[in-house]
Amino acid sequence: GGLDGIIRIWDAATGEFQKALVGHDSYIHDLAWSPDGRTLASGGSYDATAKLWDVRSGLNLRSIKHPSWASKVVWSPDGRTLLVSGGESGIAKFWDVSTGAERGKVEHGRYVLSSVWSPDGSSVAFTCSGQAAQMFDTAEFKVIRSFGDEVNETNYSSAWSPDRKRLAVATSVANRSAAAPLM
Question: What is the pLDDT of residues 130-153, one digit of tens each?
């Protein structure tokens, strides 16, 4: 995804250009493949949309309007929900991929740097600028647990262990544990 709003798909083995997906009005900040590999999600900045693309045909399947620029797109492990977040206020919305209906919303009050689904899809970890990393339940969209300092810390990224027992968080604070036990 580029500054020109065009997504380019390449054959990774040969380096051969395959197709261009055109539909965003401006910068594309994030891309994510669906778990089955048939659909690509893109997050557009200034057009404030997330788009779902049929990779085979190159057609836009659905455009999802976000309240602000859409800087992060992340698929649920089962491929049924797309999480779109962005904007200075850190609004994150959970969208049903098949219907386009909003399933839930989380507001962080700060720019979302990363979001990652747990392997079982029951929760999402968010990292934001100047805020503790937070884990939200995906059924009720409420905070389950926070990790780190609420005021003095920026957590840049996070990753779940495959067994969902640990969450690794990349932080701005020195001498912090790299993985927080969850169980």
Answer: 888 899 999 999 999 988 765 566
Query: For strand 155-160 and strand 166-171, is the pairing parallel, antiparallel, or unpaired?
Result: antiparallel
Residue labelled with tokens 């788009």 = 51
Neighbours of 44 (CB within 10 A): 26
Distance CA 116, CA 72 (A): 10
Q: Which amino acid is at 169?
A: V
Strand partners, 6: 22
How many helices (H) does the chain have, and how many strands (E)? 0, 17
> Which one-letter amino acid corresponds to residue 10?
W
What lies within 8 Å, CB to CB, of 177 at 6+ separation is none
* Structure confidence by residue, pLDDT tens digits, 103-134: 999 988 888 888 999 999 999 999 888 888 89
* Cβ-contact 101, 121 below 8 angstroms: no
